[in-house]
């Protein structure tokens, strides 16, 4: 049965992999007789930065009925085609340069192709709610004969489509069209089922991954999350699209898939023993993106319903959507039994240390950090540690503190899970966006009249304020000891050098440290300490022989000028935190802890 023609039809083909070019066409019946507009998004949902994807469109022309039409570029991401009668069939042909090996845009070479719809599909104005048809073609040539295609875009003809085949796909509207990234090439694949959902695992790039092990661990993580929100899962299938590289880390969430980039060494291998840190962090990343299937892809800030893709979309709530997701990513690893309780506590200790090391936490709240993500978190400069707080890490600690208070205050009957399930029912299932005060309201409601109002007020003060969280006291009720390593005898300069560089280039100068007091700046290249040559590697060795309070002389280059500074070494700050099981926790504390993490 031929599928009925869609109002908007796209065709995309890797036309020249060697030149990193996709050829794309978009056909539509014009809606605006004064001239049909087409626009490309300026950002991709999930990554809050204006990226101006239209800069990668390298040529563009329009035709109608076999004749060329005039096209005018009217701003950096919009084109207007000359006036045509209403309903005239019009096709735009354009080429997209794809050479960004990240999960955020598009990449194409002779080994594989990857794209997000936000990088390649121009949106005809007025058509956002109309169904789209997409034909994805394989590149021409014998060398691409074995290429396959992986995407969760629904096939145009379900049941008659070859698994991993090129061909025709469909989307209910533009929002769906751009929410299914596409991978093509000679990838390896595996599948597993969890919570009644078919999951595909797609790995492109060279690797020696133990797919059975990875699939088994992911199946436990996915099942645990589906159980948390309640079956059935909101998606009928799901794909992990993983680009394996020598050095890389990142992920982007979508409604039925995630695009990930990871280091080859972080993947499990046959015969691997124990649980290496790199693999643990890769599983944490997968768990994080999967949790977004609910928390941000379906439970969304009202500010994102709908997304405005031509400009910044402001919300003060990223602490809830990224911070709560960051809290749950590792928590799910321990709850699903993929890691042990002590491993989990070690991960939490690292998060606490990360937050406490940045004095920016005393200047910016997580609500402000969310709002300004576009110009601050995503565009960090040398002063970032002194100026901003991460809504991921501090947001995760706020989630932890809230969860512990909900559990302790209700003798384990209520928790952050209860709040997440309420948000899922109220906002996820219904598609109603979360108002800027909607998380506080959900806490108030989920925790009941006795506990709710107090904790909702506490949460609001925590996300709008810059104070440190009462974690030591809260963890004690769960039989967990929170310790700060004592301020060291080691001396401290109060700066950070570029990792892996031969020369000692200063990356950050920390507030209140000796380097800042002496006038050393980011970008300076340190040459010598007390007249002896310095290297980034040798710095720790030099300092190990000194004591806080001693004066040292530093020679450096600022630009091309040789300069000399006198510093007084300070004691290293106490910013190493660890969380441990209390040796003698009472029965009540053990019960709370087991309700939270499972049995140790
Ligand atoms: Zn995230």
Walkthrough of the structure:
The protein has 600 residues and is α+β, with helices and mostly antiparallel strands. It has 15 helices and 30 strands. The longest helix has 27 residues, at 438-464. The chain is globular. The model has no long low-confidence stretch (mean pLDDT 95).
Biggest sheet descriptor: 7 strands, mixed
- Portion in helices: 25-40%
Supply the number of helical segments. Answer: 15
End-to-end gap: 57 Å
Principal-axes geometry comes out as globular
Amount of beta strand: 25-35%
Nearest-angstrom radius of gyration? 27 Å
**SSE class:** alpha+beta
Strand order of the largest sheet: 5-4-8-2-1-12-14
Bound molecules: zinc ion
Q: Mean of the pLDDT scores?
A: 95
Give the key terms.
600 residues, alpha+beta, seven-stranded mixed beta sheet, six-stranded antiparallel beta sheet, globular, binds zinc ion
What's the short version?
The chain is built from 15 helices and 30 strands. The chain is an alpha+beta fold and 600 residues long.
Give the secondary structure arrangement, pairings included:
Elements: E1 8-16, E2 21-29, E3 37-39, E4 57-64, E5 67-69, E6 71-75, E7 78-81, E8 89-97, E9 106-108, E10 112-115, H1 117-120, E11 123-124, E12 132-136, E13 148-151, E14 167-171, H2 174-177, E15 182-185, E16 188-194, E17 197-204, H3 211-229, E18 237-245, E19 249-253, E20 257-263, H4 277-291, H5 318-335, H6 341-357, H7 366-371, H8 384-387, H9 393-409, H10 416-428, H11 438-464, H12 471-476, E21 480-484, E22 491-492, E23 495-497, E24 504-509, H13 514-518, E25 525-529, E26 532-533, H14 539-544, E27 551-558, E28 561-568, E29 570-571, E30 577-581, H15 587-597
Parallel strand pairs: 1-12, 17-18, 18-20
Antiparallel strand pairs: 1-2, 2-8, 3-7, 3-11, 4-5, 4-8, 6-7, 9-10, 10-15, 12-14, 13-15, 16-17, 19-20, 21-30, 22-29, 23-24, 24-25, 25-26, 25-27, 27-28
The structure holds zinc ion.
The site of zinc ion has 4 residues, from helix 5.
């Amino acid at each position: 049965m031929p599928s009925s023609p869609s109002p908007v039809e796209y065709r995309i083909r890797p036309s020249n992999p060697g030149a990193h070019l996709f050829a794309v066409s978009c056909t539509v019946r014009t809606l605006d007789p004064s001239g049909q507009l087409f626009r490309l998004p300026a950002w991709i949902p999930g990554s809050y930065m204006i990226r101006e994807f239209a800069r990668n469109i390298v040529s563009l022309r329009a035709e109608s009925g076999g004749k060329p039409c005039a096209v005018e570029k009217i701003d950096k991401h919009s084109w207007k085609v000359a006036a045509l009668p209403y309903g005239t069939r019009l096709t735009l042909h354009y080429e997209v340069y794809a050479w960004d090996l990240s999960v955020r845009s598009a990449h194409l070479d002779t080994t594989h192709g990857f794209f997000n719809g936000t990088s390649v599909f121009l949106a005809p104005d007025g058509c956002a709610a109309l169904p789209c048809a997409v034909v994805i073609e394989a590149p021409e040539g014998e060398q691409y004969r074995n290429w396959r295609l992986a995407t969760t875009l629904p096939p145009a003809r379900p049941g008659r489509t070859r698994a991993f085949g090129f061909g025709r796909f469909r989307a209910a509207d533009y929002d769906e069209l751009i929410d299914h990234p596409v991978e093509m090439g000679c990838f390896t694949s595996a599948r597993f089922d969890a919570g009644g959902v078919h999951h595909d695992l797609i790995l492109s790039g060279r690797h020696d991954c133990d797919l059975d092990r990875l699939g088994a661990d992911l199946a436990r993580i996915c099942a645990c999350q589906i159980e948390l929100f309640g079956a059935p899962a909101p998606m009928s299938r799901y794909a992990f699209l993983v680009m394996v590289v020598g050095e890389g880390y990142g992920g982007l969430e979508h409604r039925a898939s995630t695009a990930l980039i990871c280091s080859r060494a972080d993947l499990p291998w046959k015969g691997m023993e124990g649980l290496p840190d790199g693999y643990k962090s890769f599983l944490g990343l997968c768990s994080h993106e999967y949790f977004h299937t609910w928390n941000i892809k379906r439970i969304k800030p009202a500010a994102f319903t709908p997304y405005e893709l031509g400009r910044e979309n402001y919300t003060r709530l990223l602490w809830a959507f990224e911070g709560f997701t960051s809290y749950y990513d590792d928590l799910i690893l321990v709850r699903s039994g993929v890691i042990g309780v002590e491993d989990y506590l070690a991960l939490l200790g690292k998060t606490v240390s990360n937050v406490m090391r940045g004095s920016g936490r005393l200047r910016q709240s997580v609500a402000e950090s969310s709002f300004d993500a576009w110009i601050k978190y995503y565009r960090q400069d040398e002063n970032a540690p002194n100026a901003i707080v991460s809504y991921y890490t501090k947001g995760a600690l706020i989630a932890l503190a809230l969860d512990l208070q909900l559990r302790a205050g209700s003798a384990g009957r209520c928790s952050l899970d209860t709040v997440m399930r309420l948000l899922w029912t109220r906002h996820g299932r219904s598609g109603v966006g979360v108002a800027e005060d909607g998380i506080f309201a959900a806490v108030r409601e989920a925790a009941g009249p006795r506990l709710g109002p107090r904790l909702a007020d506490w949460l609001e003060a925590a996300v709008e304020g810059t104070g440190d969280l009462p974690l030591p006291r809260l963890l004690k009720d769960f039989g967990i000891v929170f310790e700060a390593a004592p301020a060291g005898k080691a001396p401290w300069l109060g700066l950070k050098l570029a990792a892996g560089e031969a020369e000692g280039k200063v990356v950050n100068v920390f507030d209140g440290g000796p380097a800042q007091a002496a006038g050393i700046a980011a970008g300076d290249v340190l040459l010598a300490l007390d007249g002896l040559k310095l290297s980034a590697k040798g710095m720790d060795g030099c300092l190990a022989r000194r004591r806080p309070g001693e004066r040292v002389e530093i020679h450096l280059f600022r630009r091309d000028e040789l300069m000399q500074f006198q510093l007084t070494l300070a004691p290293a700050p106490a910013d190493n935190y660890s969380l441990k099981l209390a040796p003698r926790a009472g029965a009540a504390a053990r019960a709370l802890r087991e309700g939270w993490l499972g049995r140790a």
